Amino acid sequence: EVQLVESGGGMVQPGGSLRLSCATSGFTFSSYGMGWFRQAPGKEREFVARISRTGTRDVGSSVKGRFTISRDNAKKTLYLQMNSLKPEDTALYYCAKGIGVWPSSDASAYDIWGQGTQVTVSS
C-alpha cells in the first residue's frame, strides 16, 4: 500500500521557521517526482513546491526565496523547509507523489496524497 505521512506542522510566530517531513512507503520513492501543496480554509488547493526524481526544484511565487523543497532518497522522505513564515502561510500542507519523474505544478499531475499537516502562523 502506498502511503505518505506528513509531520512537522505546528504553530509558529511570524518570521519563524518550520521543517515539514513526508515519510513515504509502498513505492520506489527515487523513481518519482514529488510535490507540496497547501490549502487554507475557504481557499483552493495551492501549489507550493515540486522536486524531480533527480533533484530539480521549483517553488510557487508566493513562497519563493522563503521555502525550500528537498528529498532524501535513502530515507524515502520529502522535506519542506519554511523560513520567514507569514500569517498568510497558514494552511493544511500536503505532500503528493507525482505521476512521473517531473510532475507539473498542477494537482492533476499527482496521484497519491498524504493526510496533511497543519501549519499556523500567528502572534
Description:
By secondary structure, the chain is an all-beta fold. Helix content is 0%, strand content 49%. It has no helices and eleven strands. The protein has strands spanning 3-7, 10-12, 18-25, 34-39, 46-51, 57-59, 67-72, 77-82, 91-98, 110-113, 117-121. Strands 2, 4, 5, 6, 9, 10 and 11 form a seven-stranded mixed beta sheet that branches. A four-stranded antiparallel beta sheet has the order 1-3-8-7, with no helix packed on it. It is globular, with a radius of gyration of 13 Å. The relative contact order is 0.31.
Structural class: mainly beta
Compute the number of strand runs.
11
Poorly predicted sequence stretches spanning 5 or more consecutive residues: none
What kind of sheet is the major sheet? Answer: 7 strands, mixed
Strand content: over 45%
Shape: globular
Order of helices and strands: EEEEEEEEEEE
